[in-house]
Write a structure and sequence with these properties.
The protein is of the alpha/beta class and 381 residues long. It contains 13 helices and 15 strands. It is globular. The termini are far apart. Bound molecules: nicotinamide-adenine-dinucleotide (NAD).
């Protein structure tokens, strides 16, 4: 049966060049595209590890997914792939906070310089672009600069795509290298739209989490690597170590289940008339907790999954300088305004935080607990 878009029109089959499509978000988007649409995914990434389960040539969708192993920094095949597909989705990035102040050059090149050719090829070849930005582009909130008595009012923390300013710390706080590079990319895309008619959609994810996010250090990533908070806390739970709360885990964040998020991206893909020319916040304001509360919820969920008592799991405070090194900084709170995405795409998040943590920790336990047990049982020299 033909699939219909929000205007009741048949959705045409599209070929989609997914740059960075082998990562966390890309892997879930690929699953959705092959299983629920008739679109074709042309995946570009340096690694296919997270989508290998979709690439087996015996699978029914084998003719609708292909993988091109290439580094977009230095590969002339990129332009050909963008030219030969209908839509480009750019997900490629260095996007782990531990890198922003320790590898600022790689962060800036990856999030700004490397997207310049992608944007140029889309404009020159009149191809539609869905680009992944970040909620970090908003930087710090107005609320964080106000006297304490004003800080409770959510209006100082709610971030609106076309109204909120982008407020970063000083240059020596290199944490902002990521946000600033992403902002420049957003501005370049917007300028191409304004001057050259580029058809664009910018997505601003707010902490999308779920299975396959990042890596577990020492198992499927470097043992000294520092992934994003979900994988950091999962790693501590799997190893029976205290969960490290940076500066007491006071920062508040909203968390969105990856499957809900992918539904929003699919709506953007299938409804260009409603998505082109817009920037969309994609988050779940109902799932707001402090990082400390997130740690406590993850302890509760992991106790259920692993059978170990929650009392055997704990948290410990660490300073941001000890954890992330010099030049780290943070935003106190970020709440997405959802007016735009609800109006344009009739999308709303569905999954509450406790449910999404249950699913995710079941996955982490199933995928990693044996490998960690083996590692921990090895004799130390
Ligand atoms: P991810 O790290 O899992 O995926 C990024 C992918 O890009 C990786 O597979 C990586 O190998 C690939 N890549 C990076 N540089 C490349 C290059 N030069 N050539 C080819 N491939 C390259 O990250 P993710 O969570 O899937 O995020 C995807 C996008 O969404 C990023 O732009 C990120 O900044 C943005 N984002 C994500 C979140 C979130 O909640 N997950 C939040 C804010 C922004």
């Amino acid at each position: 049966m033909a699939r219909l878009n929000l205007d009741g029109k048949t959705i045409p089959m599209m070929s989609i060049c997914m740059i960075g499509g082998g990562g966390f978000i890309g892997s879930h988007l690929c699953e959705k595209l092959v299983a629920e649409t008739n679109h074709k995914a042309v995946v570009v990434d340096v690694s296919s590890e997270k989508i290998d389960h979709l690439l087996d040539r015996s699978l029914p969708w084998a003719h609708r997914i292909e993988f091109h192993q290439l580094n977009i920094k230095s590969d002339s095949r990129l332009e050909t792939l963008i030219k030969s597909t209908d839509l480009t989705i750019n997900l490629a990035a260095i996007c782990t906070p531990a890198d922003y102040n320790t590898r600022p050059l790689d962060t800036i090149y990856s999030n700004f310089v490397d997207s310049i050719p992608v944007i140029k090829y889309c404009t020159e070849n009149k191809k539609r672009l869905i680009h992944f930005s970040t909620c970090e582009v908003y930087g710090k909130t107005i609320g964080s600069f106000l006297p304490q008595e004003f800080r409770k009012d959510p209006k100082y923390f709610i971030l609106k795509e076309d109204e909120s300013p982008c407020i970063f710390g000083p240059i020596n706080k290199q944490r902002w290298s990521y946000a600033c590079a992403k902002q420049m990319t957003d501005r370049l895309i917007y300028a191409e739209y304004a001057e050259n008619g580029l058809d664009f959609t910018i997505v601003r994810p707010y902490n999308w989490i779920g299975p396959r996010m990042d890596f577990i250090p020492g198992v499927d990533g470097p043992s000294d690597g520092v992934p994003r908070v979900l994988a950091c806390f999962s790693n501590s739970l799997l190893r029976g170590e205290p969960l490290k709360l940076v500066d007491g885990g006071k920062s508040q964040r909203t968390f969105l289940y990856i499957k809900d998020a992918i539904d929003a991206v699919a709506l953007m893909i299938d409804n260009p008339e409603k998505a082109n020319g817009y920037i969309f916040n994609v988050g779940n304001p109902d799932n707001e907790v402090s990082v400390k509360e997130l740690a406590e919820l993850m302890i509760k969920a992991y106790a259920k999954v692993s059978g170990a008592p929650a009392s055997s799991m704990s948290t410990v405070n660490v300073s941001s300088e000890d954890f992330y090194g010099k030049g780290y900084d943070d935003s106190d709170r970020r709440i997405p305004d959802m007016t735009f995405i609800t109006r344009q795409l009739a999308w709303k998040p569905r999954t509450p935080l406790d449910e999404l943590l249950d699913v995710t920790l079941q996955y982490q336990h199933r995928t990693y607990s044996r490998a960690i047990e083996r590692e921990l049982s090895k004799p130390t020299n």
